[in-house]
């Protein structure tokens, strides 16, 4: 007795040293939230949006005057001879400030600000597109994991049925009321079920790993989905529009950006007008020479120069002849605009086709759910009737095994139809740009 107590204590100590597996219970909403928080691509899209906002502020600063400061020092040798005098620059300094205000830049400043605004809007749409892709990926992994889990539980129930049937037939064989052939058939069926169950369990593990990857969780995490009772509602008022889809908005913004690029190219051949003002102070410049006093004697003198100067300047730059460079850049920008318009036209059709395909999948998926639910109900009833008939000797083992196989297939179809419909539902919302609503 003491030996058993000692072994129990040792086992308990061993189990307490094992690392505890992290268990995570998730709803579909929790799954989405975790995926959005930890997805690297979404974090990069958020950074790109912040960069675009900074670019817009940088572009706006082109409207404002620029204030610059300058400080310099110099040492020149040898000294410079100037009509009998000597200019000495040993440590001359110069300090000043300047203000520059562009008055007209050929429309490039305004076009640059428009481009920055379009860039910020495009970054926001790209981020929204990434968010919907992350949600769609999380939903797909979540429902696939639920589907495989339910199939595992269904096969385990199927195996329990076959184990019960095996015991009944084994008892009948021992009593001389059954045959070894029947027992062998059930044994073969049990082996087939074990094979299917092992495949389902392997698939369950792969789906768990895929879901952990989407959620950014450690691969050892045990995930327990809570949405095991799948509710399906018939699709109503399905929208075929693509106006809310971020891909469509990005295509339109690409066209708008190319229009501003034309203005930027045209601004290079227009006059540039600017105004600047400044003030500088210089010092430590010495002028040495000889000068005559009132008695006519030459004496050496040194004059130190320290002073400040102000400056106001207006400038006008007019491109006159650059061998047609500017006009060719404008033509090139117009061709880029045509290409962007063609991309919008072509991809709009593709996006519309994708939406219609999503609508068809959703509609067909709901019909499959109804058909699979009815088939599962009928197979369940058929199995119940056939089991009763077999118990009373009114049907053969073949009929019972066939009814059980039909129930297993019908239940598998029901699980696949329900989970696939939820995936189609998410995909439809993504294709129409309403996934986050």
UniProtKB/TrEMBL annotation:
Swiss-Prot/TrEMBL keywords: Cell outer membrane, Membrane, Transmembrane, Transmembrane beta strand, Transport
Q: What InterPro entries is this protein classified in?
A: OMP_efflux, TolC-like
From which domain of life does this come? Bacteria
**Pfam families assigned:** OEP
Entry's localization field: Cell outer membrane
Q: Which SUPFAM superfamilies match?
A: Outer membrane efflux proteins (OEP) (SSF56954)
> Does Flavoprotein count among this protein's keywords?
no
Is Protein biosynthesis there in the keyword field? no
- Family stated for the protein in its record: Belongs to the outer membrane factor (OMF) (TC 1.B.17) family.
PANTHER family referenced in this protein's UniProt entry, alphabetically = OUTER MEMBRANE PROTEIN TOLC
Query: What's the name of the protein?
Result: TolC family protein
The species this protein belongs to is: Bacteroides mediterraneensis
């Amino acid at each position: 007795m003491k030996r058993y107590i000692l072994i129990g204590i040792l086992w308990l100590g061993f189990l307490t040293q094992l690392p505890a597996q992290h268990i995570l219970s998730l709803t579909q909403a929790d799954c989405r939230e975790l995926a959005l928080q930890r997805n690297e691509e979404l974090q990069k899209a958020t950074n790109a949006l912040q960069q675009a906002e900074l670019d817009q502020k940088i572009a706006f600063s082109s409207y404002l005057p620029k204030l610059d400061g300058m400080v310099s020092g110099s040492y020149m040798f040898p000294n410079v001879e100037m009509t009998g005098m000597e200019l000495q620059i040993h440590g001359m300094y110069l300090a000043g400030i300047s203000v520059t205000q562009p008055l007209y830049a050929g429309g490039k400043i305004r076009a640059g600000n428009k481009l920055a605004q379009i860039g910020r809007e495009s970054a926001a749409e790209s981020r929204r597109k990434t968010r919907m892709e992350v949600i769609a990926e999380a939903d797909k992994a979540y429902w696939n994991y639920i589907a495989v889990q339910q199939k595992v539980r269904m096969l385990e129930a199927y195996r329990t049925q076959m184990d019960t049937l095996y015991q009944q037939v084994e008892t009948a064989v021992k009593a001389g009321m059954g045959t070894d052939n029947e027992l062998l058939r059930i044994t073969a069926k049990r082996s087939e079920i074990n094979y299917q169950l092992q495949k389902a369990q392997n698939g369950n593990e792969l789906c768990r790993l895929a879901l952990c990857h989407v959620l950014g969780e450690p691969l050892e995490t045990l995930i327990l989905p809570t949405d095991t009772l799948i509710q399906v509602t018939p699709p109503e008022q399905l929208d075929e529009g693509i106006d809310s889809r971020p891909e469509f908005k990005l295509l339109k913004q690409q066209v708008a950006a190319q229009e501003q690029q034309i203005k930027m190219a045209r601004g290079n051949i227009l006059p540039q007008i600017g105004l600047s003002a400044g003030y500088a102070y210089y010092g430590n410049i010495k002028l040495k020479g000889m000068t005559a006093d009132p008695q006519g004697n030459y004496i050496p003198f040194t004059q130190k120069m320290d002073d400040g100067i102000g400056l106001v300047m207006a400038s006008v730059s007019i491109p006159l002849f650059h061998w047609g460079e500017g006009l060719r850049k404008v033509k090139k920008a117009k061709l880029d605009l045509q290409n962007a318009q063609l991309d919008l036209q072509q991809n709009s059709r593709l996006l519309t086709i994708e939406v219609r395909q999503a609508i068809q999948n959703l509609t067909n998926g709901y019909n499959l759910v109804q058909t699979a639910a009815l088939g599962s109900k009928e197979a369940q009833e058929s199995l119940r009737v056939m089991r009763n008939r077999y118990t009373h000797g009114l049907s053969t083992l073949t009929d019972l095994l066939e009814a059980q196989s039909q129930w297993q297939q019908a239940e598998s179809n029901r699980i696949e139809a329900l989970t696939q419909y939820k995936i189609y539902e998410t995909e439809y919302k993504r294709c129409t740009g309403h996934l986050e609503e």
